[in-house]
Amino acid sequence: MASFGSASPIEALYNNHHAWLLSWLRRRLGDASDAADLAHDTFVRLMVSARGAAVGEEPRAFLTHVAKGLVIDLWRRRDLERAYLDALAQLPDAHAPSPETQMLVIEALLQIDRLLAGLAPHTRQIFLLAQLDGLTLQQISEQMSMPVITVRRHIHKALVTCMSVL
Question: Is residue 102 a part of any domain in this protein?
């Protein structure tokens, strides 16, 4: 907390706009607890980043921008969790992983999702054709109408990106 009457920029931002952001998130999400979590996460994100000092003339627009990213992350996480849990529901009970393992898998899937989202669209598509569909370089080259060497470069770029987090 700031000393005697002088609030830090983040503290002042929080005091002046937290209630508004919380209300905005409640309307957007329809859930008070999710809204409270994301409002909190928005200010935490600002505190740990250099962007917090650069709010500028439109603090609500800035807060909305940060909060929208967190809302998208929440929705993406829930979609991924739902898809994974739906796939698990198809398994016999004896093969179902423990709740701890399920959470580890979901975290790994989210990390993979973030990595893939960070790739250029062509690179991501080529990488997925190779990894998920099992297409050869030549098959991808024909499907994407690009030289094999370009396909190889895209796959290399994707693999280097994936390996960078290990």
Answer: no
